[in-house]
Amino acid sequence: MNCFNCSKYLQEAIDSVYAQTYADWEIIFWDNASTDNSAEIAKSYDKKLRYFRGEKNIPLGNARNLAIEMVRGEYVAFLDCDDIWMPQKLEKQVKLFETQSDVMLVYSDSYLIDSEGNTIRTAFETEEPYKGQVFDELLCRYNFIPLLTAMIRKEVFDKVGLFNPAYKMAEEYDLFLRIAHLFSIDYVESPMAKYRIHDGNFSRNLDIGIKEELEILNKWIRESSALTKEDVKKVKIKKVKRYAALYLYYFVKYTHLPKRFAKFY
What share of the chain is helix, strand, coil (3-state, %, to 5)? Predict the structure, then answer.
């Protein structure tokens, strides 16, 4: 768990980990130099929550890497401090890992909720999940893996590296591509987490995210030995669509249209 001034939803997030039906876990809690009472809330829990604090606020990818370095377990999962895990999340994902030694990442569907916790819809209502060798789908279509649902074998970081600190928004997409390029991926069909949409995370620099995604696509095109000619063609088509999404984002932003238009990008 990485935290920066998240006291409003923090207790609910931590409690969702303590409510897990799978009991063999620990929380690596990385406080990214919060100035609210997040530290007080985190420190009120028992020793299953290991609290760490950075000296200064740093980009999220860097903070996630520092937290990963403190992990002692076999698997790593991620929960931001305004989101929630369903009680059986860890149990169901660990079972998949234990029966499939070649799988290095397991994810799931998730609920989208509003600031008050009301369910809006599930992620897979509008996005199709994939499993197995999913590199082509992940690269040529979209990032269909919600980070808050992802569980990764820790050993995989030794082979593909950690989050790239050069990215501020697309760091997880970059990591997932590196994993999917080499390893198999599986998923739990039922929603195993709740992603909270609120004013604090709605806009989260969508333009930066799209630009970084385009950088990642260009990187894989440059490394064309990893791609078939058909994949290169698909990625170029995707780039055109992402440029269109970027221009639409700027149009919505600077003409002050309602947020509902965000669904188009």
Answer: 45, 20, 35
**Single-letter residue type at 87:** P
> What are the residues facing 63 on neighbouring strands?
none
Task: Find all residues with CB under 8 Å of 252, minimum gap 6, and list them.
Answer: 261, 262, 265
Closest to 195 (Cα-Cα) out of 90, 89, 29, 79: 79
- Report the DSSP beta bridge partners of residue 211: none
Q: Which helix (H) or strand (E) holds 10?
A: helix 7-18
Q: What three-state secondary structure class fits 30?
A: strand
Nearest to 226 by CA among 155, 167, 138: 138
Architecture of domain 2-196: Alpha-Beta Complex (3.90)
- Asked if 164 contacts 84 with a C-beta cutoff of 8 angstroms, the reply is no
The domain locations on the chain are 2-196, 206-264
Residue-wise burial string across 232-264, b where 16 or more C-beta atoms lie within 10 A, e elsewhere = eebbeebeeebeeebebbeebeeeeeeeeeeee
pLDDT digits (tens, 9 = 90+) for 150-205: 999 999 999 999 999 999 989 999 999 999 999 999 999 899 999 998 776 544 57
- Closest-CA residue to 192 (of 80, 68, 91): 91
Sign of CA dihedral 131, 152, 64, 197: positive
Note the pTM of the prediction, 2 decimals.
Answer: 0.89
